[in-house]
């Protein structure tokens, strides 16, 4: 399924066909604004008619006054909408039966009917934005919140599917859910859940990740209570699909809040680091992104993660076949490399700089840039002996080569400035000649070259000292 937000994670799901598109035939329909009226949506969807007489018969049953026939018709519609390929969402909407189902469900206490009705709504809501807009504008959100009064867990599971699909469609509707006065029901359901109900956990972890995602971001105070639920999943469970959704939730919530102590505890971090060995790209990506955010906010993150075996994991990820994984790995190292020369020592000891050099020489530009950030940040904290060790690896030469790339230039120049300040003769005569020519070229081309001028001044001062 193509995500509606453009993220890696799938924001909408159809029931019992996890991860598959619920409406592939309609994916090219234009996105409908969140405030589009029901009549406008109905008109634009009214070009389709029922493909078979059984659907028309089911609609007739739902429109009858017989509760038995109503349930039979509803169950047929639910089965039609649960098809893996091309479910007739437009046909069902065009029939006008959704309003009838909502009215019946709002007045009928029967759990079986409510279960089927909510399932129908969940699958319609997993369609495209126009189809989702139709139900939202029928006031399906207040109806769904009222169902939290039910004790039936199956109904609540369906409700969370529906809310997850609505929130996954656009941020306006996500915020409509979050700002509802009854949103606390969702928080209470998640934070007080019986973890023996794996289906409910799976649904809620995915739905919560949709409440946390998107731009503009949700109001942080509204969603912070989910930290408890997410942390519990990470620590207690092993199912990869549930862990993946929970880790995406952790990533989104660490984007919102600058300091979450709950995510800096040993038990939590240890579990995430274990996921760095997975071959599941979704789980690996979510784990790396979460660790990246934590290391950008946590003091002495390296010493904590080092004791948990982080370096052994990250070492192999720098050589991972997926470009995005290598990039995330470099970003984490760049966060850690600002901490102290002790971190640089461990990087040297574990030969991480050799791998970073290989990335700088051979990788795509976006990954190369992240690798250079590791070098530049390391340069601010390393001691003179470490500068010499890095130069002997060929780091100075490669940084000079990186000056020709616009998006890496200033980072590379900053690193070279730090090196020269700590070890004035770290750049040999041949490298200096090449560097001066590059700097002159930048100046002559009118480039923004403050960092280049600073470096040339440092080099000139070194020459003056030598001549004296």
The multimeric state of the shown protein is: single chain
Please state the structural category: mainly alpha
Overall pLDDT confidence: 88
Question: How many beta-strand runs?
Answer: 0
CATH top level of the domain at 1-167 is: Mainly Alpha
CATH structural architecture of the domain at 1-167: Alpha Horseshoe
Put simply, the count of helices is 28
Helix content: 55-70%
In CATH terms, what is the fold-level topology of the domain at 1-167?
A: Leucine-rich Repeat Variant
- Rg estimate, integer Å: 28 Å
Range of strand content:
under 5%
At the fourth level of CATH, the homologous superfamily of the domain at 1-167 is: Leucine-rich Repeat Variant
Q: How far apart are the first and last residues' alpha carbons, in Å?
A: 70 Å
Largest sheet: none
The stretches of 5 or more residues where confidence is low (pLDDT under 50) are 1-8, 16-36, 44-48
- The secondary-structure element order is HHHHHHHHHHHHHHHHHHHHHHHHHHHH
Shape: elongated
């Amino acid at each position: 399924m193509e995500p509606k937000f453009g993220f890696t994670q799938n924001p909408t799901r159809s029931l019992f066909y996890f991860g598959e598109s619920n409406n592939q035939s309609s994916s090219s329909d234009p996105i409908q604004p969140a405030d589009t009226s029901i009549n406008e949506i109905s008109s634009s969807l009214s070009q389709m008619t029922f493909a078979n007489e059984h659907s028309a018969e089911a609609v007739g049953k739902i429109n009858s006054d017989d509760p038995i026939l109503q349930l039979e018709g509803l169950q047929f519609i639910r089965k039609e909408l649960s098809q893996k390929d091309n479910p007739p969402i437009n046909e069902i909407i065009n029939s006008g039966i959704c309003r009838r189902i909502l009215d019946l469900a709002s007045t009928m206490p029967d759990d079986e009917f409510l279960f089927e009705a909510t399932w129908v709504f969940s699958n319609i809501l997993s369609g495209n934005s126009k189809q989702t807009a139709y139900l939202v504008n029928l006031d399906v959100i207040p109806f769904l919140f009222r169902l939290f009064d039910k004790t039936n867990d199956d109904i609540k599971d369906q409700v969370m599917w529906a809310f997850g699909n609505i929130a996954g469609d656009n941020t306006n509707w996500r915020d409509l859910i979050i700002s509802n006065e009854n949103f606390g029901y969702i928080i209470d359901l998640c934070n007080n859940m019986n973890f023996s109900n794996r289906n409910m956990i799976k649904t809620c972890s995915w739905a919560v990740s949709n409440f946390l995602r998107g731009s503009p971001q949700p109001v942080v105070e509204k969603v912070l209570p989910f930290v408890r639920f997410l942390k519990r999943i990470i620590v207690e469970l092993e199912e990869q699909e549930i862990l993946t959704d929970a880790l995406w939730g952790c990533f989104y919530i660490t984007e919102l809040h600058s300091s979450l102590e709950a995510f800096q505890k040993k038990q939590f971090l240890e579990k995430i680091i274990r996921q760095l060995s997975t071959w599941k790209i979704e789980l690996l990506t979510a784990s790396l992104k979460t660790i990246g955010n934590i290391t950008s906010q946590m003091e002495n993150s390296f010493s904590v993660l080092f004791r948990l075996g982080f370096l052994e994991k990250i070492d192999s990820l720098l050589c991972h076949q997926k470009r995005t994984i290598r990039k995330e790995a470099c970003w984490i190292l760049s966060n850690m490399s600002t901490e102290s020369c002790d971190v640089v020592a461990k990087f040297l000891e574990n030969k991480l700089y050799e791998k970073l050099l290989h990335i700088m020489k051979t990788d795509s530009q976006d990954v190369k840039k992240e690798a250079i950030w590791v070098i530049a940040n390391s340069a601010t904290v390393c001691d003179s002996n470490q500068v010499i060790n890095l130069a002997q690896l060929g780091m100075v030469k490669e940084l000079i080569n990186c000056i020709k790339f616009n998006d890496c230039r200033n980072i590379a120049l900053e690193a070279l400035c730090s090196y020269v300040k700590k070890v004035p003769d770290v750049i040999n005569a041949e490298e200096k000649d090449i560097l001066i020519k590059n700097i002159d070229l930048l100046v002559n081309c009118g480039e923004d070259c403050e960092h280049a001028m600073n470096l040339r001044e440092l080099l000139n001062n070194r020459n003056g000292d030598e001549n004296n």
